[in-house]
Design a protein that fits this description.
Elements (H helix, E strand, L loop, with lengths): L1 E12 L2 E12 L3 E5 L6 H9 L6 E6 L2 E5 L2 E2 L7 E4 L11 H5 L11 H10 L16 H13 L5 E5 L7 H17 L4 E5 L2 H7 L2 E6 L2 E6 L1 H6 L4 H6 L4 E8 L2 E4 L2 E4 L7 E7 L4 E5 L8 E9 L3 E8 L5 E7 L9 E6 L4 E2 L5
Parallel strand pairs: 3-9, 3-10, 7-8, 8-9
Antiparallel strand pairs: 1-2, 1-4, 4-5, 5-6, 10-11, 12-13, 12-15, 13-14, 15-21, 16-20, 17-18, 17-20, 18-19
């Protein structure tokens, strides 16, 4: 059963096409993230799903019910879609409890137990129920906005970059609370974001959007390990795209040979190698070809990403190392490749 089915959706504003034949599904109980750069059409897609605008072409169905397309347009209030914007957009003159029940039928608005259930669901103490929005932190406000969106038990929840205004620590904490709440409610949700870490850590599936199209939709591990193209590879993490010559199933690069995940004919190829596949080893003078200079070290605490230049070719590569030790800037090191590479050259 699918919570959302989008087929061939197009949308233009004047002469500017924003969505160009979008196809996407969200399974029941699944959190799907639409990942893409600013201006790629993510928020426009959410607005079409919510009913705030109509597509020029295509159909959108919630469950088995078509809400737009084939001559049908269901108004937003009848779609049973919850919406959490970038800023929580809580009503400043209402307290937390009043904000949460705002979208419920009047007959249900005095159900205090429902407010308590939702506060617990999003990880907030019930004692905040009578606080004003300005008395809450940014993360707490977003959790209240989530509780409000979940209150009517929507068919689908739409999350429009809801963590972008939070600082790093609060963003991580709030993400975890939101995922826990969605799992507990068995809710189906569509998150749009430009943050690759957010998409990778939260979503069951990631849909990569570029230039108004979905170019790949798959589990996070599949998108990271088998990206559809080099641009997709870079959108979900650091990537080395190297020129290579393929011979006998091996891609021969400036930093050594590596097996290909998808075998192809011999000849020139462009391959993808993740930084964790580039191993830094002490230079022993036996291989001039793979010597590299350490240009920069990006320290992240749990690991470091090292920028290097291959001396023989001036090719720049990234390597990821774990732990607290890093090579010295300007040092000469040797490089090796591990694992398998992805190939993006078109087969003849």
């Amino acid at each position: 059963m699918t919570a959302l089915t989008i087929k061939g959706v197009c949308k233009s504003f004047g002469d500017h096409p924003v969505l160009d034949g979008v196809d996407l599904t969200v399974a029941d109980g699944e959190l799907t993230a639409v990942l893409g750069a600013s201006g790629c059409g993510k928020t426009t897609l959410l607005r079409l799903i919510a009913g705030f605008a109509a597509p020029d072409e295509g159909t959108i169905a919630l469950g088995d019910d078509v809400v737009v397309g084939d001559g049908t347009f269901v108004s937003p209030q009848r779609r049973r879609v919850g919406y959490v914007p970038q800023e929580g957009a809580l009503f400043p003159h209402l307290d937390v409890a009043e904000n949460i029940v705002f979208g419920l039928p009047r007959s249900e608005r005095k159900a205090h137990h429902r407010v308590d259930e939702l506060l617990e669901l999003v990880g907030l103490d019930r004692r905040v129920r009578h606080r004003a929005p300005h008395q809450l932190s940014g993360g707490q406000q977003q959790r209240v906005a989530l509780a409000r969106a979940l209150a009517p038990r929507p068919t689908l929840l739409l999350l429009d970059e809801p963590f972008s205004s939070l600082d790093a620590a609060l963003r991580t904490e709030t993400r975890e609370a939101v995922v826990s709440a969605l799992r507990a409610a068995s809710a189906s949700a569509l998150l749009v974001t430009h943050d690759q870490g957010e998409a990778m850590s939260m979503a069951d599936r990631i849909a990569i959007m570029r230039d108004g199209r979905i170019v790949q939709a798959d589990a996070p591990a599949a998108v990271y390990g088998q990206p559809a193209d080099a641009a997709t590879a870079r959108s979900v993490g650091h990537a080395n795209v190297l020129e290579a010559q393929v011979r006998d199933g091996l891609a021969h690069t400036s930093i050594g040979p590596i097996p290909l995940r998808r075998l192809r004919r011999d000849g020139p190829a462009q391959i993808l190698v993740r930084p964790e596949q580039v191993l830094i080893v002490p230079a022993d003078g036996t291989s001039i070809q793979t010597l590299a200079r350490v240009d920069r070290v990006h320290f992240y605490g749990h690991d470091s990403v090292v920028a290097l230049t291959v001396l023989a070719t001036d090719e720049r590569v990234l390597a990821r190392i774990s732990g607290g030790t890093s090579p010295v800037l300007g040092a000469t090191v040797d490089l090796e490749l591990a694992g398998e590479a992805m190939n993006y050259a078109t087969e003849p």
